[in-house]
Design a protein that fits this description.
- This is DNA topoisomerase (ATP-hydrolyzing).
- This protein has 8 helices and 15 strands.
- The protein is of the alpha+beta class.
- It folds into 4 domains: 60 residues, no CATH class; 38 residues, no CATH class; 164 residues, Ribosomal Protein S5, domain 2 (2-Layer Sandwich); 59 residues, no CATH class.
- β7 and β8 form a beta hairpin.
- The longest helix has 34 residues.
Length: 341
């Protein structure tokens, strides 16, 4: 991130406060060193101060959005519990401060504002394969999944291995619990992953060592670190599985919602298949028996249909009809005489 900002800035000034010393280095014109790294003083503070000016040769309009920056900083504060971040806009004399001591738990509360929750917030945390994993989730009465994922505080909008591990672990745990409790019978298929995530709000945050971090593509939108999948899946399987066991009422609520989602999905699939089959048969005989001999004219207002007794009568009628506007439908059995009935 800083290297990109440096490349796009006419001025990039850095002061580093570390080990009781203050260090200073300055770049300009897209990364050229204007002042080499120099010790300029002593301090009891730690941290880094960066001052930069976007290059006007590259950016014709330079306007920082307070709203965009504020949202990103709030996100960072959620991901790093106990860290206070202050944003000041000197253009409008405006300041906001973010501090979330409960981190992802407060993030879930923020995301689910206005929704009706059906479970408490579930927190999972651990270290696997040198990767720090933190997951928070909650179910609501909503029908859509709302999932955010991060790797080293960078939003992975395209998901990646950590998301795959989360979904795999979640689905496995729910299916295992449902079978153990008899909510899924032996003959029943497992719940689909999409069924188990209906109404789910979840946040996945992993901290991966630099030696292991891999992204797919140049934008860091998708995590490619293979071990992240296993790390997240192990923690979710253990800790969410334990939570289901300890919270039977909520566990049943989650599974009942998933079963309903599966039923709706199956009904929708059957309806789509029926619609496709009807389309193949054509509009003319969509709702009628396959014995119908339709008229060629598609304008039903100009057509007529003859109901005849049996296939033999139907054969004669077909020979004598005007196929342009006359249809023949043989009936099975003897037709009741309406006048005598």
């Amino acid at each position: 991130g800083s290297s990109v900002v440096n490349a796009l800035s006419s001025v990039f000034d850095v002061k580093i406060y570390r080990d009781t010393k203050i260090w200073h280095i300055k770049f300009g014109n897209g990364g050229q060193v204007k002042q080499p790294l120099t010790e300029i003083g002593t301090t009891n503070e730690t941290g880094t101060t960066i001052t930069f000016l976007p290059d006007s040769k590259i950016f014709k309009v330079i306007d920082f959005s307070f709203t965009t920056i504020s949202e990103r900083i709030r996100e960072s504060a959620f991901l790093n519990s106990g860290v206070k971040i202050t944003l000041t806009d000197e253009r409008a004399d405006k300041t906001v401060e973010y501090l979330f001591n409960n981190g992802l738990e407060e993030f879930i509360t923020y995301m689910n504002e206005g929704k009706k929750s059906i479970t408490t917030i579930v927190m999972m945390k651990g270290l696997e394969k040198e990767i720090e994993v933190e997951v928070a989730l909650q179910y609501s009465t909503e029908f859509n999944e709302n999932l955010l994922s991060f790797a080293n505080n960078v939003k992975t909008s395209e998901g990646g291995s950590h998301v795959v591990g989360f979904r795999s672990g979640l689905t496995k745990v729910i299916n295992d619990y449902a079978r153990k409790e008899g909510l899924l019978k032996e003959k029943d298929k497992n719940l689909d992953s999409t069924d188990t995530r209906e109404g789910l709000t979840a946040i996945i945050s992993v901290k991966v060592p630099e030696s292991l971090i891999q992204y797919e593509g140049q934008t860091k939108g998708k995590l490619g670190t293979y071990d992240a999948r296993a790390a997240v899946e192990i923690i979710v399987t253990k800790q969410f599985g334990f939570w289901l066991t300890e919270n039977k009422t909520s566990a049943y609520t989650i599974i009942e919602k998933a079963l309903l989602a599966r039923n709706v999905r199956e009904e929708a699939r059957k309806a789509r298949e029926a619609a496709r089959n009807n389309k193949k048969r054509g509009n003319s005989d969509r709702l009628l028996t396959g014995k119908l001999t339709p008229a060629q004219n598609r304008n039903k207002l100009n057509n007529e249909i003859f109901l005849v007794e049996g296939d033999s009568a139907g054969g004669s009628a077909k020979l004598g009809r005007d196929r342009r506007f006359q249809a023949i439908l043989p009936l099975r059995g003897k037709v009741i005489n309406a006048e005598k009935a």
